[in-house]
């Protein structure tokens, strides 16, 4: 195939082809497992080695994202490039696109890797989004606090996930300190949402525009980090239907080819507000790996390869619990490992570990998925299995 064929290819990319993954974390690892199961080869690119993705990929390239010569070389050796980490610089995606098809396209990455751009895109296109305003100075922040009242959340526009770069402001006199702590960065201020619950819709869009989703998944966060996800969400049908319709419209508007997750707050008065978009498989969709006919990772593969999308049917109600580094005895200055055998004693629980070498507080090291006759039961089992690790 010539270079221009490779960047504009409209033919399906078939098993035996090579998929390039920018980023090397657990999302890339689970994607690589799905891809290798279907007979694809996987190359991964990141500034590290012995990474969660690299451990299961065919080839692990270690280079910085701004090494555009390395990026072009990486893209030249693969049939399609995707990413598992949205904070890839836009120039990196552009350089890759000179040598291979990049899916989802760089414009999706550009919009979603910056909270200000993402929220502006959502608001301008009529999607319901948490009230926000851009903050460039202390005056902007004070004006925002007057508009939204306290509490409110100051967030960095770039490089934010799992509550990183966020400060909750509970009184007007904290404004100056919050601004000083933030330094000279592009910020947004968001109104505090007193939500009834959080939910997400993981959607997938094929190269032909076909749309699939896994329904509404209900999410509990702890310290701003996802703790437990449950499917199907225990919500009125019309809320689920509306959330799915919003997700479908977002994927269409962004012309996504691949998987994108829409995270929502459901307010106490029954309104859905979009909190955030993630242009890739998402932590809340990990339970699809064990509990669905087609997982979010296989669907991402099918989409970026231009294959028909698979059934997203949930085979059994399921719940997923994250395993953070805090569970490791060494993080508390003790010796030993979590009690894996005790978790494996739950016959309907599946253990996923990401191969990360150093546990740290708040670091996602793995997850457990439980399946049961009801979502509530699955949530109860997965929490018990996690407790058994300690
Ligand atoms: P984020 O990184 O923006 O997704 O935030 C992580 C978590 O912090 C969310 O899932 C919420 O639990 C909480 N959070 C973030 N923004 C807000 C907000 N504006 N109002 C209430 N809770 C929030």
How would you describe this structure in keywords?
alpha+beta; 13 helices; Dna Ligase, domain 1; Rossmann fold; single chain; 3 domains; D-amino Acid Aminotransferase, Chain A, domain 1
Regarding quaternary structure, what we see is: single chain
User: Judging from the principal axes of the Cα atoms, what is the shape?
Assistant: globular
* Ligands: adenosine monophosphate
Question: What structural class should be given to the helix and strand makeup?
Answer: alpha+beta
Question: SSE layout and pairings?
Answer:
Layout lengths: L2 H6 L9 E5 L3 H12 L3 E6 L12 E4 L5 H9 L3 E4 L6 H8 L3 E2 L3 H7 L2 H10 L7 E4 L2 H11 L3 E5 L9 E4 L5 H8 L4 E5 L3 E11 L5 E12 L2 E7 L5 H17 L4 E10 L4 E7 L9 H4 L4 H9 L13 E7 L15 H5 L4 E5 L10 E8 L3 H13 L3
Parallel strand pairs: 1-2, 1-4, 2-3, 4-5
Antiparallel strand pairs: 6-9, 7-8, 7-9, 10-11, 10-13, 11-12, 12-15, 13-14, 15-17, 16-17
This protein binds adenosine monophosphate.
Structural commentary:
- With 390 residues, the protein is an alpha+beta fold.
- It folds into three domains: 3-102, Rossmann fold (3-Layer(aba) Sandwich), CATH 3.40.50.20; 131-191, ATP-grasp fold, A domain (Dna Ligase, domain 1, 2-Layer Sandwich); 195-387, D-amino Acid Aminotransferase, Chain A, domain 1, CATH 3.30.470.20.
- The chain has helices spanning 3-8, 26-37, 68-76, 90-97, 106-112, 115-124, 138-148, 175-182, 237-253, 288-291, 296-304, 340-344, 375-387, and strands at residues 18-22, 41-46, 59-62, 80-83, 101-102, 132-135, 152-156, 166-169, 187-191, 195-205, 211-222, 225-231, 258-267, 272-278, 318-324, 349-353, 364-371.
- Helix 4 (90-97) links the parallel strand 4 (80-83) and strand 5.
- Helix 2 (26-37) packs across helix 11 (296-304) and helix 4 (90-97) runs antiparallel to helix 5.
- It is globular, with a radius of gyration of 21 Å.
- The termini are far apart.
- The mean pLDDT is 95.
- Bound molecules: adenosine monophosphate.
- Residues 130, 153, 160-163, 190, 192-193, 198, 221, 224, 275-276 line the site of adenosine monophosphate.
């Amino acid at each position: 195939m010539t270079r221009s064929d490779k960047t504009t290819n409209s033919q399906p990319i078939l098993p035996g082809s090579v998929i390039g993954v920018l980023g090397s974390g657990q999302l890339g690892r689970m994607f690589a497992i799905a891809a290798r199961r279907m007979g694809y080869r996987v190359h991964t690119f990141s500034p590290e080695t012995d990474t969660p993705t690299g451990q299961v990929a065919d080839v692990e390239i270690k280079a910085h994202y701004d090494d555009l010569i390395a990026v072009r070389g990486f893209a030249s050796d693969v049939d399609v490039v995707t990413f598992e980490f949205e904070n890839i610089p836009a120039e990196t995606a552009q350089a890759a696109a000179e040598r291979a098809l990049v899916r989802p396209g760089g414009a999706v990455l550009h919009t979603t890797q910056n909270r200000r751009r993402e929220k502006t895109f959502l608001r301008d296109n009529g999607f319901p989004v948490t009230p926000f305003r851009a903050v460039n100075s202390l005056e902007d922040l004070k004006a925002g606090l007057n508009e939204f009242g306290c509490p409110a959340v100051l967030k960095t526009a770039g490089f934010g996930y799992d509550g990183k770069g966020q400060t909750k402001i509970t009184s007007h006199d904290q404004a100056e300190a919050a601004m000083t702590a933030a330094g000279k960065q592009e910020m947004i201020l968001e109104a505090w949402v007193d939500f009834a619950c959080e939910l997400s819709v993981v959607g997938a869009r094929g190269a032909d525009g076909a749309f699939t989703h896994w329904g509404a998944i209900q999410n509990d966060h702890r310290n701003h980090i996802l703790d437990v996800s449950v499917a199907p969400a225990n919500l009125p049908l019309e809320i689920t239907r509306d959330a799915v319709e919003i997700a479908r419209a977002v994927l269409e508007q962004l012309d996504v080819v691949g998987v994108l997750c829409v995270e929502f707050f459901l307010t106490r008065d029954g309104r859905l507000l979009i909190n955030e978009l993630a242009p890739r498989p998402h932590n809340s969709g990990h339970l699809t790996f064990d509990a669905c006919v087609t997982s979010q990772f296989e669907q991402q593969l099918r989409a970026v390869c231009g294959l028909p999308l698979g059934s997203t049917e949930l085979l059994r109600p399921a719940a997923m619990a994250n395993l953070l580094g805090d569970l490791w005895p060494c993080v508390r200055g003790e010796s030993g490992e979590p009690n894996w055998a005790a978790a494996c004693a739950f016959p309907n629980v599946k253990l996923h570990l990401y191969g990360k070498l150093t546990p740290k507080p708040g670091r996602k090291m793995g997850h457990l998925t439980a399946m049961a006759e009801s979502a509530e039961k699955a949530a109860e089992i997965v929490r018990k299995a996690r407790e058994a690790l300690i």
